[in-house]
Hints:
Two copies of one chain form a homodimer. Chain A has 225 residues and is mainly alpha-helical. The first copy, chain A, is built from eight helices and four strands. Chain A folds into two domains: 73 residues, Glutaredoxin (3-Layer(aba) Sandwich); 120 residues, Glutathione S-transferase Yfyf (Class Pi), Chain A, domain 2, CATH 1.20.1050. Chain A is 53% helix and 6% strand. Chain A has a four-stranded mixed β-sheet, with helices on one face. In chain A, helix 1 runs parallel beside helix 3. At the A-B interface, strand 4, helix 3 and helix 4 of A face strand 4, helix 3 and helix 4 of B.
Amino acid sequence: xxxxxxxxxxxxxxxxxxxxxxxxxxxxxxxxxxxxxxxxxxxxxxxxxxxxxxxxxxxxxxxxxxxxxxxxxxxxxxxxxxxxxxxxxxxxxxxxxxxxxxxxxxxxxxxxxxxxxxxxxxxxxxxxxxxxxxxxxxxxxxxxxxxxxxxxxxxxxxxxxxxxxxxxxxxxxxxxxxxxxxxxxxxxxxxxxxxxxxxxxxxxxxxxxxxxxxxxxxxxxxxxx
Amino acid sequence: xxxxxxxxxxxxxxxxxxxxxxxxxxxxxxxxxxxxxxxxxxxxxxxxxxxxxxxxxxxxxxxxxxxxxxxxxxxxxxxxxxxxxxxxxxxxxxxxxxxxxxxxxxxxxxxxxxxxxxxxxxxxxxxxxxxxxxxxxxxxxxxxxxxxxxxxxxxxxxxxxxxxxxxxxxxxxxxxxxxxxxxxxxxxxxxxxxxxxxxxxxxxxxxxxxxxxxxxxxxxxxxxx
Lengths: 225, 225
């Protein structure tokens, strides 16, 4: 059975968990703290990040791009049921938005929140820097405007079928939502999309997560939030 | 003929140019400044970055992940001659290092240099902040140690065959090298690899680049640097 070295709130790892759940691939979870720089981890991944997929008889797959491609190659059902859309133009739109989430959204929103609320606390018991969280919040508002605009014109983020890009964004939102950092009231279109994706059986794997000493924010696991 | 909306020193665009040159795909270059936030560009790419591939009869492909996949699907010769290696394990190593370059290396080195030396100057005639460039330089030293270690044990960055990850790293190095920001003397292994990749016919497309008012640093176009 494949195994994932991960942190519960790492959005990249959450994306991999969603893909596995959607494809019906059982996945063992092995919790770790990437920032602890464990020598055994550094040996496998000198970048010291989580999201490492260990699969029977294969070398470890390090990082989210590698894991996405490995799962698609090894476990995707037919193209029709997979998370990569069928046409070249739709796939390009999927990659555009995947890049948006993995790089831009992470860079401007998620990584600030994870660093301030999780890493700092764990490493030295420090409290989050309010100025940094304010910047992340302001950036999230801008991103939400764009996502609302997209979801006003299409069913899923890259078009009329659900793709990997939906799971990527939902993985980030689920981490932020666990920490109470998403204001759903003002984002009607994105909220409707998130309610839809949250109701999928694959999402249960994330909604059951609990982190010791850090309860999920209200509404995290509710399908009607 | 495909066309690329790009900035000459944008490493993502340079990677796409290398792939096209390697695959023998003629490419029209359309210079632009992503930071100018031209409304026509924002219409195609609200992320306001360069690296947009416009191909006959296809929707524009925005971003480096989309362009990589589109070129691989549309123009790669057989798997043997392509830039994606043949086995699953080798591909995973390629994606790991591609992610390293596109996210980690860019984040810790290249984007600081581009922002300080190109964007700031162009936007408001400002000079680079020495403190920021010092951080980028210190980070580059750390990355170089890792690359030297890799190249001491393997011919190409992801193994014994040249892959997309080599082109990605070479694209970043070529931007930094144009600006005189790579100290080759202290990085023997990486320098040998760069000399090898720089000698490929595909690389000529980059070595002929000239930017108005900003001559290339000494050695930029020399195969013996």
